[in-house]
């Protein structure tokens, strides 16, 4: 069983929709949770991060962590065609300068 | 511009022919890492380095070597490439000290095909 599970999609939504992306994990030692966005032919770039359980909002993006359920989510409000990308969840035990364990990524397509 | 660069971006080679993929960062980061990305498997760490002359294995180190002689450079060496090393490779770096973002900065990737 993988440490981090993520639905690969693809997920196709119309412009303006609310998107929900999710990951589950099995290792309770994970403390830091991140979402990376990867455009085609590019390297991943950090979108959101949270420490431990709770919510964090940044513009149209909200990250949620439920450590009791070992479940993290990324919500995108008012989705735009420019949000079309692969979204990777990642987590680590010790934060900066440490090994990241990634999900396989969910490919999102936002259509006009 | 703060960035991680990798070269080459694309490489097709034959089994057994030694190759090196270079990685360089201009942000004075202590931590550097190599990942490979495969469909259905996601990003998996190959090797990482906490600082100059300090390297350690990640999850999938077999068939790879690294060195960290300078802070800015972290080359990935395949001494005898095999077809199962066909993959998309990413180099990443981050500062050692705690920061607000805990971000790892990724390079643009190197697509390697071994025939």
Explain this structure to me?
Chain A is mostly beta strands and 112 residues long. Chain A contains no helices and 11 strands. In chain A, strands 2, 4, 5, 9, 10 and 11 form a 6-stranded mixed sheet that branches. In chain A, a hairpin with a 6-residue loop joins strand 4 and strand 5 (45-51). Chain A is globular, with a radius of gyration of 13 Å. The relative contact order of chain A is 0.35. Chain B has 115 residues and is an all-beta fold. Helix content of chain B is 0%, strand content 50%. Chain B is built from no helices and 11 strands. In chain B, the strands form 2 sheets. In chain B, strands 2, 4, 5, 6, 9, 10 and 11 form a 7-stranded mixed sheet that branches. A 4-stranded antiparallel sheet of chain B has the order 1-3-8-7, with no helix packed on it. In chain B, strand 4 (31-38) and strand 5 (42-51) form a beta hairpin. The N and C termini of chain B lie far apart (36 Å). Classes of the chains: A mainly beta (112), B mainly beta (115). Chains A and B meet through strand 5 and strand 9 of A and strand 4, strand 5 and strand 9 of B.
